[in-house]
Structures are given as structure tokens and as C-alpha cells.
Amino acid sequence: MAYTFHNSKELFRRAARVIPQGIYGHLTPVFTVPGSYPYFGAKAQGCRFIDVDGNEYIDYLCAYGPMILGYAHKKIDQAYYAQVKNGTCTSVAPALCVELAERLVATIDCADWALFAKNGADTTSIALVLARGYTARNKIVLAHDGYHGSQPWAGTNTVGITPADRSDFILMPWGDIDSFKGLVEKYQDEIAGVMLTPYHHPVFADQRLPEKNYFSEIRSLCDRYGIVLIIDDIRAGWRLDLKGSAHYFGFKPDLACFSKAMANGYPISAIVGSEKMRITASKTYAAGTFWFNSGEMAAALACIDEMERIDAPSILKERGEMLVQGLQDLASSHGLHVTVSGPPAMPFMRFSNETNFMRSQLFCGECARNGVFFHPHHNWFLSTAHTKRDIRQTLDVADRAFKAVKKHFGE
Amino acid sequence: MAYTFHNSKELFRRAARVIPQGIYGHLTPVFTVPGSYPYFGAKAQGCRFIDVDGNEYIDYLCAYGPMILGYAHKKIDQAYYAQVKNGTCTSVAPALCVELAERLVATIDCADWALFAKNGADTTSIALVLARGYTARNKIVLAHDGYHGSQPWAGTNTVGITPADRSDFILMPWGDIDSFKGLVEKYQDEIAGVMLTPYHHPVFADQRLPEKNYFSEIRSLCDRYGIVLIIDDIRAGWRLDLKGSAHYFGFKPDLACFSKAMANGYPISAIVGSEKMRITASKTYAAGTFWFNSGEMAAALACIDEMERIDAPSILKERGEMLVQGLQDLASSHGLHVTVSGPPAMPFMRFSNETNFMRSQLFCGECARNGVFFHPHHNWFLSTAHTKRDIRQTLDVADRAFKAVKKHFGE
């Protein structure tokens, strides 16, 4: 019996009266498969959540990244509670901020210091300021289809943007060293920084890992032309390598941005930097009311402890490989062709012989209505709470969904 | 026995190695009185906190606004915990977001809809986008010395800012209707919006309440020239009037930004708007990983419930008046002249016959080293946890601090 969404729809009607779009941002239902996905959740535990109609899902979005150890994780929640009992948002800094900064510096390969904020986007925006302050230049190079937040400069919103918002940005294709070479030669002393994700995770497209020398060449061009290299590790951070995804791919950025999985869902972000950026960071005024909240810092420390203790990246890799291999085998068994891209901890699957994502919509919709929460055009996330048994159950559902795709579209 | 800060200093030395400035943003020690204030807190409860040296303070900063009901408030914390046990940051929106949006629309006078974010600054930045999207114009009018966050456009940071960051902004003096009239006549069809705080709360200066017709004239000029009126109620919101500070001062903005006291310290912010802004808000892509976290939403609902139940603004006014009157009487009794400005719930006191804040530094330093946490050049905040007894104790400490000021500076 496939799921129905009566309560979700009722609630969405109420939502539409008091919230523009009903649900906005990345959670908006128009981004998944209208009619096949729940709009509202009621309860989440481990790798599963239950929606407001009582339907249960094995969740491969993990809140779009933050949930890395499982929802409602006791150790992390208890660390949070224990801290909050003594106050979380206070008039002076908590002792815990020193402990967490020391921990990030000890853990993340490129970090000599750390600043805390709330959103990932707070840190990408601060990174621009630091690169510009350090170089006394204005231009920032970004990759087409890179995601760094919804703030005006980041290019994901089209309404209410002024020409000035984006006048200091230059776009290039991710992964193409010649493009970057061309830009630095053309603009040399105008480029303050280049901000890239450690691997390319666009929506509606295959993910791409960096070619062998991509980042070492980026690094040496940055050094040669005095450009600050910024890695936006907000989405991938903590899933590939606890020392940072840059470490995983073998290079050192000057600045790196972290958030999402850092505290298993508690709102915190951090920008870390190398020694050479410290004085500029010290001269910058960056502030937010909740940026020193100690509860989120306690959660981050507990989360990093736990990720280290269990070696989270190796578990995510193993489970991801099991999922990805299983999906590929199933697709073949039905005579279907799928392309799986990206690291197994954060895979993306599409049907190889289509560009309109119709098969993906049908496949993901079938999966959702049978208890497996994938996304048709955004990368997925594994958590350490996804057991082998969960993945086997997932593959059973996927098998029937592939069958539906074959029935509807043929091979 | 005045306080000493051995552990604070030790910890600060550690902090300085891993955090630029040691402590940054509004919590940086250089903003208070170096040597007289603690750097790090250990525990906060009610209206008090204890620093890492065991010194206790009656706190009139209230975390710079968020703490309105007392630190570690059981009802709010329990509402948060109860929600978090079922997951907080999840892959679909929580049912609670509808309840909270409905509540804001029912509570805040100018609200026909609400969007949630994390930082206050998220909402002021979204407000600019909405004003520009609605009007298809670029320029935004701000007041000199108004605070809307530390993002590049907001003017509080000077390092790493590009000309483009501020090219679409026009500054005017807060409270001067002729200046605004002059600007709208000069720029008329170029001005998208004007963003103002509901009363003026600069640092290093007296606070100013709006004159009788200021906002009604702003409102009618905005209507006449098609300009979006945005109120940044992040600092004052919830302390003057639960329907919003604009309601308190008798006018309706098109957009209003709230955060700080909305959830008693849990990180959440909201932008609310009038009907006419709804379609623009629906067309805008605004997203943050943690913006739909249900824990913070549960805390906000519990906080609004409690503020309504006890009529928080009336308590804050009464306690604020007692503090302010007491300070003025004490100053007079020592032959000193102080100027107290702003609403009693958020007062600011300075010594009338100085502009360099030396007396304020000595006064606040003396108070801090004797257990009362004021700020020499930033407005203070009352909470409902400040009892009459706390205020009497505060005035005892202030009496001795005034005496020290008189001894050092004369009358």
C-alpha cells in the first residue's frame, strides 16, 4: 500500500496562508516530486522519519546534510542539554568556545584558527570579506552552479538582486584548470579569492570529483598570483574526512567553511583559516547574536568526538558503496542504465539516457511513496545510522521502483 | 572585595591562539572596560551569570537582548527539549513551522505572513531583497549609526568591503523627517526601501525615541513614492510591545525583522510582512540549512506564550523605571549628572558632562568588579527575571560606583 498525504496537504493549505510558498527554500515541495512526497514531518529517529500522516521513511537526505550520526542522537542531545542547563546565549563568551576552536585547529588540516557563526552562508560571506581584506582586491572567482548560500552575491536567487550585488564576481566552469588560468592571467591583480567546493555537487547534474592535479594547480596559481583559496566544505565537510575534504583531496586552502554535519543538526558553522589570514580575520568585525551560543558548541564537540570514535567517514563510505552497488546491480537487472556520481557517502543517481529527469521523478516518487526518501535531482547523504539492514530494505523498495520505471518508460 | 579575573585571563591567552582577537564581534572585551570585566562565563541562571573565576553578576546585557525571561528558563528549555527528542533539523518541514507562523501573524500587528531564518541579519538582508524585488528599484535608505548586522552592506565592518557592497545605499540622520523628504524628492523612483529601527539605539550616544509624527510622515512618504518601509525590530522587538515596536509607536511597516528575544536565546529570526509583499516573498529563494529547525520554533512558541501570559513588556517597564529612577536619584545624591535615554526596558545611561565616556568606563568597571554587569556605551536590557530585590542590590553597587566616580572626577 503506497503512502497517502492527507494531513500533509491539509497542513500545507494552512501554511500557504501564513508562509510565502507554504514551505520555502530547499524544503519547498516543488523541488521533489509533487504528490509523491510528504510536506511535513512529525518525528525523526536514527535514519528514519515519520511524516504527519504516519508514513515512515528511510531518509537519504539527512536534512540535506546535517544529520550524520542519526536523528535525535542521545549523546549529542545530552551534551547539548547539559550545556543549556547552564545557559546557552549569554553576555560573555563561553569557556567552551576556546575548547571547540582548539578542537577544530587540532582536527582540520588547514586550520590555524577558527571563527564561529550560525549559517554556512555566514561563513562563505565572511570568507569573501577576509579574502578582500587580505589582498586589498575586490573580485572573487566562483564556479558555475556552485552553491554557497542564498544571499544575493551567491547567485541562487533572481528576484530583488541589483547589478552591484554581483559586479565583483567572475564565474568559471568547476574543474577546468585552463579556465582559471585564463582568468588569473586576464585579471591577475584584481582577483582577491577563488571559492570552490572540494568536489562539484550541482543540482540536476552528475557530481564530479576533482581530477588528479586540479587543486594542486589551483593552489599554485593562487600562490603565484596572491589569490586566497577558499574551500566551501559546508555540504561535504565531515563526511569524507574529519580533517576536511581538502585534506581528502590532498591540498591546503587558505580558508575553509564548515557547517551542516558539524553538530548533527544543531545550528553552528565555522570558518577556519591558515596563519597568513589571522591578522585580517582579527581586524574584521563579524558578529551575530547567537554565534557564541554554548549549547551548539557542546553539540559540535560531542559530534566531532563521536565521529572520530566510530570513524564516521569509513562507515559512510562502506554503507554508501553498498547502496550504490545495490542500485546499479538492480538497475542492470531490469535492463536500465543509471549513472551514479560523487563519493559513496554523498551519492547521486540519475538515469543515463535522459536529461529531463522524468525517470528520476518516477523512481524517486515510487520510492518515497514506499518509504525511501531519495531526491530526484539533489545529491543524497548517508549517515552512520543507516545500517546494512536499512540499506537492504531500501534496495527492496528500489527494486520495485526500477520495475515501475521500466514498465512506464521501457529500457 | 572586588572581583579578579585570573581564569578569564588564562583562558583568553589560550583563546588568542585559536580565535582571531581571542573573542570577536560584540563580545570582544575591548568593547567593555579592559581589566574590569570577565572574558568568559561559566553558568547563567535567571538574571545572573557566574564567570570562570566564580564571580557572580546581575546581568543588564541579557546576552545583548535575547534573554528576556531569564537564563536557563525551565518552560522554554523544556519546550525545546520535548521537540528535539523527535528530531529538530530534518528533511521535510516540521508541522510546528505552521503553528509558529500562524502565531506570529496573530501576534504581530503588521504581519500577514512570516519567514524564518537564524540570524537577525538574515532577515534584514532578505528585507532588502524583498523591497528591491517588489519595487524593481535598487537603492535603500538607512540611518547613520543604525545597526542591522555585520554583513558588508550594513556598514559596521571596514575591512574587506568593496565599493559595490555599499553603492546602492543612502544614509540619512535617524529621526529627521526633512532629510528623508529631501532624499525621496531627489531619488524618488530609485528608492526601493527605507530600513529603520523603531527608535534610535546607536552606541556611544543617547538613545532617541521617535517624535510624534516621525513614522506617520515616513509612512505617508513611503506610500506616496512607492517605497517599502522596513522596520528592524531585532533589538527592541518583544520588549516594548508583543505586537511589535511599530505598533507601540503607532504605525505599520511593510516588513519587520525580529530575532533576539523571540525564543529567549535559542537561535531563530523571522521576517514578517504585509499582504502586498507576499507575492514577492513567494518568488524569492531564501534558504538556510537550519532555518526550519523545530527545536527553535518550539522555544519561540513557548517564549511568546510566556511573554503574553505574564505581560512581559509591563514588567520590563516597571523594573526598568525602578532601575532608571534609582540611578538618577543616586547620581543626584552624589552631585553627579547623568542622562538616561531610551525606553526603561532598554535604558542607556551616560554622564551628562562628558563625551569621552571616561566616567562611564569607571562607573561600569566599578559595577562589574562588584557584581553588576552594565555596558559603558551600549544600551542595557532588562529581563522579567530581574526582581525588585535584584534592582535594589544593583543600586547599592551603583551607589558605591557613583562615589568612586565623584572621588576620581569630582562633580
Gist of the model:
Chain A folds into two domains: 6-71 and 312-409, Aspartate Aminotransferase, domain 1, CATH 3.90.1150.10; 95-291, 3-Layer(aba) Sandwich (Aspartate Aminotransferase, domain 2), CATH 3.40.640.
What would you note in describing this structure?
2 copies of one chain form a homodimer. Chain A has 411 residues and is an alpha/beta fold. Chain A folds into 2 domains: 6-71 and 312-409, Aspartate Aminotransferase, domain 1 (Alpha-Beta Complex); 95-291, Aspartate Aminotransferase, domain 2, CATH 3.40.640. The first copy, chain A, is 38% helix and 15% strand. In chain A, the strands form 3 sheets. A 7-stranded mixed sheet of chain A has the order 5-11-10-9-8-6-7, with helices on both faces. Chains A and B meet through helix 1, strand 1, helix 2, strand 4 and helix 3 of A and helix 1, strand 1, helix 2, strand 4 and helix 3 of B.
